[in-house]
Amino acid sequence: MDEAGEVRAQGRSGPSNPMRVGFGGAFAAVCEAGRIAIQNAKLLPGDIRAVCAGLAGLAQPESQQKMARLLTEEYPGKVIQVCTDLDLTLKATGDRRAIVLIAGTGSGAVGRDLTGQVLRVGGHGPLLGDEGSAYDVGRRAAIAALREYDRDRPDSALAAKILSELGIANWEDFHLRVYSAPDEVFPRIFPIVTAAAEAGNSDARALLQDAAAELAGQVADLVEKLQLKSGKFLLAKSGGMVGRSAYFDKLLDDRLHVAAPYAEFGAPVMTAAEAGARLAVLLLPAAAEEGK
Nearest CA to 171 among 187, 201, 150, 186? Predict the structure, then answer.
């Protein structure tokens, strides 16, 4: 993005959550996306004056500081800002009162009140949270399927579908796949569960009902903390779980209407990447000062 706020080019790369792919993998992915954007804009790395990176897995200040140090190596002499993906998604809603629910591989919610106070809940990663996420749904579905297997009932409809759709021969191989790369297995089970639920499978429907309740609970917590129980505010949903299943979307919306009765459902006014670029533009005065 240039100083006038015009998007010059975009770049896309792989996963960048350091809690899932490590700081080295996250750093490499961010740098690759940046290089692609710079090349597409027909610029040189030296033309960049400020950088904002908003990544999942950076809720802790020490993690943000570590990523900032790494980015300083890639962009020496530039002004660097590091924040979370939730921060970018909230920025993408504009400046009004708003709550954004992230429902994807992980889960979390962030909100802003009339005073500009920003609070977040969830987003603690697969070991300490991510309730209701695609990862969580997939993990719970796998646990339920393995229980059926242990009870000598390996032919349950959902269990059989999981193995066939993932192209895994048996539950022994499933074990090996999960323990070597859980992020590549559990989120992929979510669309299998939604398809089964839409076909009437009661186990799949129970899993999605629990997920919707967990996600709506995060929004309810923010409504309470930000005192948004009265007055209109924007409620936006984002993430790979949204818009993939009419059945799950309705479950989630029904729960959200109860958790946030005054919310106006809507979408962010820009992408998270554009929001990050706008935050970087705000750093330009500091970049100019450092260049003196």
Answer: 150
